[in-house]
Amino acid sequence: MSEFELIRKYFSHTVEERTDVVLGVGDDCALLQPPQGCQLAVSIDTLVEGVHFFPDIDPFLLGHKALAVNLSDLAAMGARPAWVTLALALPDSDPRWLQGFSQGFAALAHIHNVQLVGGDTTRGPLTITAQVHGFIEPEKALRRDAASVDDLVYVTGTLGDAGLALRMIQGSVSADDYLPSLRDRLERPQPRIAEGLAVKGLARGGIDISDGLISDLGHICRASDLGAKLFLDQVPLSEGVGRYINQGGDWGVPLASGDDYELCLTVPAENKDEFEARMQDTGIPFTLVGTMEQELGIRCQLPGGGLLDPLPGGYEHFSHE
């Protein structure tokens, strides 16, 4: 089928319809009308077969993940999602794959009221690029450069599930009964949109944990010219990851393996009670894991005392060639 037939069949009718979309899929450009008084938050991510996902992944889950990792960036800044564009490089126009992918993409878009407004398709190695657009009120964005000394450091959810699943699938760690639930965290991450929206005006710094807590909190530290101290006995772990650490003491899984897509937020101490009340209303677990400090760098205190040394590093694409 041609490029335009592909778009019409699989993507033109699987999108939300928003009133702020003047002209969507099907023309040279989309025409969009941002709400008055809001800033536009924009983020883009690319997923490459063999780097970000396994070739045998369920295409429905891949459609979900392609949008989820982008929505996670909007969540990290407290932005409300609105629009998305999608570019696909496909080795062939496999109807089964396209049907599953478009359904997974559309299902998550429906949950967060996101409309697909344009994109591109071409032939090539399987590569997926999505760009999301959202709205944020001026001065309300959760920015990496906004943390202050003595801010409390919180994370949502549990850390390390996706990283442990990856190790099990690759065979570097023996697979066990926890693999199905861990793999679900790897292949179907949930963007914390409601949580990011709930704490605007209370949290200061924010980032989504895509490359590991050490690496991503490190971005906040560098942007804010600060350091941080983490208490490892407070890092939230699922039962599977907790058992893995108890067996071998490898803190690299929850601290550095990435693909968690949870939020890391810094919160002034005076906002603690209201912040925690709002987070409780979302129904998603959250945990106080550390504090921001004047001394540069990140220090991780072990459960038995002392500091973790050396620190595990997060994922870097061009250091793994």
UniProtKB/TrEMBL annotation:
Domain PurM-like C-terminal: 149-295
Binding residue positions for Mg(2+) 4: D28, S43, D73
GO function term, MF aspect, one: thiamine-phosphate kinase activity
Binding site for Mg(2+) 5: D211
Annotated gene: thiL
Residues given in the record as ATP binding sites: G119, D120, R144, S210
Source organism of this protein record: Solemya velesiana gill symbiont
Keywords, alphabetical: ATP-binding, Kinase, Magnesium, Metal-binding, Nucleotide-binding, Thiamine biosynthesis, Transferase
Recorded catalytic activity of this chain's protein: thiamine phosphate + ATP = thiamine diphosphate + ADP
Classification via InterPro entries: PurM-like_C_dom, PurM-like_C_sf, PurM-like_N, PurM-like_N_sf, ThiL-like
Membrane-spanning ranges: none
Domain (PurM-like N-terminal): residue spans on this chain: 26-135
Designated name of the protein: Thiamine-monophosphate kinase
UniProt-listed GO biological process terms: thiamine biosynthetic process; thiamine diphosphate biosynthetic process
Residues that, per the record, bind substrate: H52, D259, Y315
